[in-house]
Amino acid sequence: MRLEMIAPSHRPVLLRESLEQLNVYPGATIVDCTVGMAGHAEAILERMAGRGRLIGLDRDEEALGHAGSRLGARFENFSLHHENFKNLPLILRRMEIEFLDGCLLDLGISSMQVDNPDRGFSFRHDGPLDMRMDQSTPATAADLVNNLSADRLGTILREYGEENSARAIADEIVRERRISRIRTTHQLANLVSRIRPPRRGQKLHPATKTFQALRLEVNQELGGLGQLLEEVIDLLAPAGRLVVISFHSLEDRIVKNVFRRFSGVCACFRPPELCICQCAEKGRFLSRRPMIPSAAEVDGNPRSRSAKLRVFEKMGMSQERQ
């Protein structure tokens, strides 16, 4: 499917809230760690008014191509990098950038990825069971379901998908692949539906959690996330802000715990003498209750319904004197 066929469906989630919380201003240095189709990046550059710079990262080379065309038609003060956001500290060192005024991390997958059957992220259309954000990496979702043990598959579905029928689905996958290799999204979705037939009134497709879990595993989306957040906080200039949009309870838990710890609040909920979370007050957790999309946004973009936005602000001089 051509990129131009799917680009129009893209809608950046929590756009207004992201811009307000990043506190973008002309002359700022801002990183968009998951630039995707450049919806957030375009709005950030508009607020910069030609001054400052935006550094955009993405694992998806196809998305970067679209982002470059979209931004290049209007702006010059940006650079794009085909990189995993976990490599951000290395990229900034290469660019000789010491501090950031803001950093945005949108952990969701883009409409372009979901709507393209060839990418294998969704069961709405049949396609190869791929799910790789970076297609230069070797392991696909098909590799996982056809090669991992039932024990390992069950663990992935239970931990990353919070799937109650994890072991039964894993066992069915193993039985099915003995007959023939599981190659497509519809094969897997139909298999899951046999174990978990849809109930009347059920909104989510029975395979939703299974697909979510496999996507997280294929792309190693949770591994190293906490460490990256800690590194970004260290890279923020005084009063700089880190804004994170998550779509999964496990992601949100990691974000919340890191932000708590670096605002000097215990995240392991033990007595002070037993605390093991190594609290260090480096700023303020500005969104202990996450911001969520409005009813109007969810109406216009149902994929935004599970989004949660949290904000951390680096300690500035005015805070240090208090």
Count of separate structural domains: 2
CATH class of the largest domain, please?
Alpha Beta
Please give the CATH architecture of the largest domain: 3-Layer(aba) Sandwich
Question: Please, what is the CATH homologous superfamily of the largest domain?
Answer: Vaccinia Virus protein VP39
The biggest beta sheet is recorded as:
7 strands, mixed
Q: What percent of the residues sit in helical stretches (DSSP H or I)?
A: 40-55%
Elements, N to C (H/E): HHEHEHEHEHHHHHHHEHEHEH
- Rg, rounded, reads 21 Å
Question: What fraction strand?
Answer: 5-15%
Look at the structure and give the mean pLDDT.
Answer: 91
First and last CA, distance? 56 Å
* CATH topology name of the largest domain: Rossmann fold
Short descriptors:
13% strand, disordered C terminus, 322 residues, DNA polymerase, domain 1, alpha/beta, seven-stranded mixed beta sheet, Rossmann fold
Question: In summary, what is this structure?
Answer:
The chain has about 325 residues and is α/β, with parallel strands linked by helices. The protein has 15 helices and seven strands.
